[in-house]
């Protein structure tokens, strides 16, 4: 079995005490690829350092909408430099809009999102998009900034089937995280059924959002089998087939070399 965790924060301090064990447990569980995702300029440098040190970990560099108030010229230049400085950086993000928590002013979120989409286009790298309670503005910005030129991933998808179809039209894959396993998953079963198999992905978003059996604990990639198993059940395909297809999708959207 081969799974690819398309959105993790493995470089965060939550894993400092046992990162090697966490990665070893994930590999034993069949997870053989990881995208560790930066949330601000300083944090993105840590993501790159981890990806440089582990052959099955790649990095995304960017500024999360929660941190958008700090996305000044210097921070954006650091992100650009990190992306250019390492072949292990395969995507820009996470970036996007979060109108649920609104930890940065909306104007700052919009500006940081626009700048990072422009950077992704300039560098020819896919984007990792965070969207919470902001689907209309996220989709509008993605269209305006021609995200289709680079494509990418809508991470921890929380919209409905219509929003998912709009993302597909823009060349973005739909990534499901732990919430797809929750009893109140609401629209997500329909989303999984509506999205063609070649556009689905799975992720942990660890250390956040553990799947149902582990709610309340620190999430880790080994537990992603629960998320993938639920997606397979909703999709009506075998776990083995789903795992192979989703890993192919991750490698295609992130433009990784074929697995050996
Ligand atoms: Zn996010
Ligand atoms: Zn994240």
State the main characteristics.
41% helix; binds zinc ion; 8-stranded parallel sheet; alpha/beta; 8 strands; TIM Barrel; 260 residues
Number of helices: 9
Q: What percentage of amino acids are in beta strands?
A: 15-25%
CATH class: Alpha Beta
Round the Cα radius of gyration to an integer and report it. Answer: 17 Å
Low-confidence stretches: none
Bound molecules: zinc ion
Structural category is: alpha/beta
Question: What's the multimeric state?
Answer: single chain
CATH architecture: Alpha-Beta Barrel
The named CATH superfamily: Metal-dependent hydrolases
At the fold tier of CATH, the topology name is TIM Barrel
**How many individual domains?**
1
How many strands in all? 8
**Could you describe the largest sheet, including whether it forms a barrel?**
8 strands, parallel
Bulk shape: globular
Written description of the protein model:
This protein is of the alpha/beta class. The chain has one domain: Alpha-Beta Barrel (TIM Barrel), CATH 3.20.20. Helices cover 41% and strands 17% of the residues. The protein has helices at 19-28, 41-53, 73-85, 106-123, 135-144, 161-169, 188-194, 224-235, 239-253, and strands spanning 3-8, 31-37, 57-61, 89-98, 127-132, 152-154, 172-176, 200-202. It has an eight-stranded parallel β-sheet, with helices on both faces. Helix 4 links the parallel strand 4 and strand 5. Helix 6 packs parallel to helix 7. The protein is globular.
């Amino acid at each position: 079995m081969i799974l690819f965790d398309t959105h993790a924060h493995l470089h965060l301090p939550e894993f400092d005490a046992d990162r090697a064990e966490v990665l070893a447990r994930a590999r034993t569980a069949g997870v053989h690829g990881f995208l560790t995702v930066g949330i601000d300029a300083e944090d993105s440098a840590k993501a790159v350092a981890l990806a440089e040190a582990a052959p099955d970990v790649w990095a995304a560099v960017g500024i999360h909408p929660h941190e958008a108030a700090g996305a000044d010229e210097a921070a954006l230049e650091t992100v650009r430099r990190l992306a250019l400085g390492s072949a292990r950086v395969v995507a820009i993000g996470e970036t996007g809009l979060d109108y649920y928590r609104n930890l940065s002013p909306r104007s700052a979120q919009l500006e940081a999102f626009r700048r990072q989409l422009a950077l992704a286009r300039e560098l020819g790298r896919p984007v990792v998009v965070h969207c919470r309670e902001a689907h209309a503005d996220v989709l509008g910005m993605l269209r305006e900034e021609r995200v289709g030129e680079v494509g990418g991933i809508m991470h921890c998808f929380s919209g409905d089937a219509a929003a998912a179809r709009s993302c597909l039209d823009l060349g973005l894959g739909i990534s499901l995280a732990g919430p797809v396993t929750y009893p109140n998953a609401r629209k997500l079963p329909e989303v999984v059924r509506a999205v063609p198999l070649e556009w689905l992905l799975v992720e942990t978003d660890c250390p956040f959002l553990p799947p149902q059996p582990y709610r309340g604990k620190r999430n880790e990639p080994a537990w992603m089998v629960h998320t993938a198993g639920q997606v397979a059940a909703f999709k009506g395909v075998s776990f083995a087939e789903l795992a192979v297809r989703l890993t192919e999708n991750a490698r295609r959207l992130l433009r990784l070399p074929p697995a050996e």
